[in-house]
Amino acid sequence: MILRRALFAAGLLPFLRPATAQGFPDRALRLIVPFPPGGSQDVMGRVFANRLAALLGQSVVVENRGGAGGLLGGQEVARAAPDGHTMLLVTAGQWTIAKALKRQMGYDPDADLAPVIHLVDSPVVLIAAAGSGIVDLRGLIAAARARPEALNYASTGIGTNTHLLMEDFLQRAGIRITHVPYRGAAPAFNDLLAGAVQVMFVSAPSVLAGDASKFRALAVTSPERFAPLPAVPTMVEAGVPGFTASIWTGIAVPARTPAPVVVRLHTAFSAILGESEAKERLAALGATPAGGPTERFAALLREDLARWTGVVERGNITVD
Question: Which of the residues in the chain have pLDDT under 70?
Answer without folding.
Answer: 1-22, 320
